[in-house]
Design a protein that fits this description.
The complex is a heterodimer.
Chain A (H helix, E strand, L loop, with lengths): L21 E5 L5 E2 L5 E2 L2 E8 L9 E5 L25 E2 L4 E2 L4 E5 L31 H14 L5 E7 L1 H12 L4 E7 L7 H16 L8 H4 L4 H15 L2 H7 L19 H16 L2 H13 L10 H4 L11 E7 L7 H13 L4 E6 L13 H18 L5 H4 L2
Parallel strand pairs in A: 5-8, 5-9, 6-7, 9-10, 10-11, 11-12
Antiparallel strand pairs in A: 1-4, 2-3, 4-8
Helix pairs in contact in A: 1-2, 3-5, 3-8, 5-7
Chain B lengths: L11 H9 L5 E5 L5 H10 L2 E6 L2 H9 L3 E4 L2 H4 L8 E7 L8 H11 E9 L4 H10 L23 H11 L1 E9 L5 E2 L7 H4 L2 E8 L1
Parallel strand pairs in B: 1-2, 1-4, 2-3, 4-5
Antiparallel strand pairs in B: 5-8, 6-7, 6-8
The chains are: A alpha/beta, B alpha/beta.
Chain lengths: ~400, ~210
Amino acid sequence: MPPSDTPAAPARPIDTAALPGHRAHLGAGAPLRLDCGADLGPFTIAYQTYGALNADRTNAVLVCHALTGDHYVLDRHPVTGKDGWWERMVGPGRPVDTDRYFVICSNIIGGCMGSAGPLEPDPATGEPYGLNFPVITIPDMVRAQKMLIEHLGIKQLFCVIGGSMGGMQVLEWATAYPESVFSAIPIATASRHSAQNIAFHEVGRQAIMADPDWAGGTYHRQGTRPHRGLAVARMAAHITYLSEPALHRKFGRNLQNRERVTYGFDADFQVESYLRHQGISFVERFDANSYLYITRAMDYFDLARDHGGTLSNAFRLPDGRGTPVRFCVVSFSSDWLFPTAESRAVVHALNAVAANVSFVEVQTDKGHDAFLLDEPEFYQVVHGFIEGCARHRGLIPRRSAQTT
Amino acid sequence: MTTAPAAQTIRIDLRLIADMVAPGARVLDVGCGDGTLLAHLTREKGVDGRGIELSMDGVSRCVKHGLSVIQGDAETDLKDYPPDAFDYVILSQTIQAMRDPRGVLNTMVRIGRRAIVSLPNFGYLPIRLQLLFRGRMPVTERLGYQWWETPNIHFCTIADFVELCAQMGIVIEKTAIVDKAGRVTRRSPTGLANLLGEQGVFLLRRG
């Protein structure tokens, strides 16, 4: 990279203790048994809530964030200063209406914004876990969230909603705890991470591990951060979140601040400059080891394998009946990371147990990231689905009488 | 369901279908369009309703109004459902647009305890007269497409449909034949119904 595109100074590690938001200390009595066999506990989960829990505790909505997201759904981000990442979906009068619902979003375990993860101190040594943090899975993340929900005194979530990796958590919630979920909205996701997706993740991990500053994962000890490797990982991943038409519309082959190409390796093209910017701004707010852990968790996700190789079995109760959870599955036509066929496979499995499911493929050229962008049709569909569920759940919009 | 039409204004064949559905039943509406029938059944009969629709426009209108509808193709997506998943599987004015009407009928009576099919009668007298006197493919108010643009690729008459059911071992439990003025005639599906009925509504079960 040319000097102009290098961060002025390596971003400082995030001081997670100073971050705004709530913190739950869990697993002190009984630790969380992870899929890898290790026990996690005691451990911390950082989370945010919006709105108020009603007297019956029936209006809680859990928002599950994506790979590099966090719990700042609506707040200004404490590191980047940007708006909350899902303000189009969550807020007063939004589809997930914070005037009606009690919204919870936790930073997943393995993350780097205050929840237990490689950046946090290992209670045994007082030093950051680094690669001593146990390998986690999507079901582990959901088990930790279940402990948080119980800690908050909530027996059943009115809705669990999330996109991409958040959608995987939604599917895991609905299949692991069908009695604890009234409705589920998995968006732009899949019941398993495909070989192509694993391949892209491996490129990102190799970029991080090839950075000398990664130092075998112990960079926290020597005061470095593998920001070059992490930036490259982000750049590669970011391409998969877009679509060719969207990239072409935005940048085409336009040059960046120049009339002609320089016959060198400067960022001649706007698209290069854009990706470099994406990579650089990402390293400010994210931890490289967290990136390794979370991408691994997604790679391991395979709901059918966890249920005897048949996806529909995941949606069956122990007594053989179909799941009582009401589903709304959403995909985007230009998403090539989690294509519509993946969502359709989930819908077919739900049909096989005659579950109550809605499914819409939203027509857009914005690619995978469309679930975070301005797609009115998408928000209207989610709004309508949640309204319908609220009627079935008996959540009447009488704010003053309902909320505590 | 603020935009759903009032009960008395729904299409005659939809009203006849609704009359055949028991209150509180589990219903799948195949090709549910904008959800008019599902909304009516939910409101008037308290059914647990689902739908399948090909067009995104129809699906998103349904879901926006709180109906459970999936975007999909009946001929590929119905096969996943287990036997007796529904009390009624409904196919209104759509069988003529199916690539494989037999396959769809078979699936309907498998996954539903009952199936309800409404269809336009190609044997209806004015249609026969159009073909006879004008020598042109009939275009009517109900079948408003030119031959080169129509989604309707498998037209049949009431007599054809009754014959197919008999062949497939499907029992017709009830029939309603509707004339041009929207009046329900008491005719049996055989005989003059095939000449004077503009459309037929059939309640079916596997034999």
